[in-house]
Design goal:
10-stranded mixed β-sheet; about 290 residues; about 40% helix; Rossmann fold; 2 domains
Length: about 290
């Protein structure tokens, strides 16, 4: 059975990752496993006394394990495997542990913007399995899964339809309606200067994909065409549609290219109020 790697949220988090993760895992027919990573910079006596630091670590790990064990029991999932570890770098631990041969989906809460940490960015750029990031401020009455498709890659048909398949699977599991958005990346200036040619390209893409999308039961009303900056387009449409989930692909750019250009998935995290499923183009897809 495929397995889901659930990273437990901190005690002060607003979103219940355990409940949402277990629900999605069950709907997808997968086995859930829960992981939590703790780390603390000690002050006072613990900082200078290794024995006291060891006792403090032990107590923190025991308290976290007890809290998660109780939460799982209350959710009727007391037999769910639970691992609580002490680790400085959550992303590195999770990425090395979540091998595609063993796990097929990772679920984690997004770090709040006011307490930004680079963990989510590291996961987006390096995780080899689909990563579902749960927002702390979900939209109310949201019942749509929105899949973002890229029209700028001439050889991107296979990637696009892989994303559609992932979105279809997620929408079915979460009882949400599947919508697709074709985004043509154009600067604001060029978009205003020559709207007709871009619209013609989008119309052609609509016609090209329309027939193949019938197998997913997607109505024409659920297809959206947008021109502009992908980040702005996706955030705007997800908000307008009240999307519960947004599915995006990522090229996982690293090094100088990643620093200069980044990934669309990273850019939208600070502004989106939908849960975001990030599908790595070179990783393992969500089982269909």
């Amino acid at each position: 059975m495929e397995r889901v790697f659930i990273i437990a949220a901190k005690q002060e988090a607003c979103v219940d990752v355990l409940e949402l993760g277990l629900t999605i895992a069950k709907a997808l027919g997968m086995k859930a496993e829960v992981f939590d990573y703790l780390h603390e910079q000690f002050n006072g006596d613990e900082k200078y006394n290794p024995r006291l630091a060891g006792i403090a670590k032990h107590d923190m790990l025991a308290a976290a394990k007890a809290r998660h064990t109780q939460a799982l029991a209350e959710l009727g999932a007391g037999s769910t495997p639970l691992t609580v570890e002490w680790g400085t770098h959550l992303a590195e631990h999770a990425i090395s542990r979540a091998n595609p041969a063993d796990y097929h989906l990772m679920i984690k809460a997004v770090h709040p913007v006011d307490r930004f940490m680079p963990t989510d960015w590291h996961l987006i750029r390096n995780t080899r399995i689909p990563l579902l990031l749960m927002t702390e401020k979900p939209l109310k009455n949201s019942n749509i899964t929105l899949v973002s498709l890229n029209l700028d890659d001439p050889s991107g048909d296979d990637k696009n339809f892989s994303l559609v398949a992932q979105g279809h699977k997620l929408a079915k599991a979460t009882a949400t309606e599947l919508h697709l958005v074709f985004v043509k990346r154009v600067s604001m200036v060029l978009r205003d200067l020559d709207l007709s040619s871009h619209q013609a390209q989008l119309d052609a893409a609509h016609e090209k994909y329309d027939q193949r999308l019938e197998s997913f039961g997607i109505a024409k009303e659920a297809l959206h065409l947008m021109v502009g900056d992908p980040k702005l387009c996706l955030v705007d449409l997800a908000c307008k549609l009240k999307s519960a989930y947004l599915v995006v692909g990522t090229e996982q750019r690293k090094g100088l290219m990643g620093l200069m250009i980044g990934n669309t998935a990273e850019a939208i995290l600070e502004h989106i109020h939908s849960n975001v499923l990030v599908v790595p183009s070179k990783g393992e897809p969500l089982p269909i």
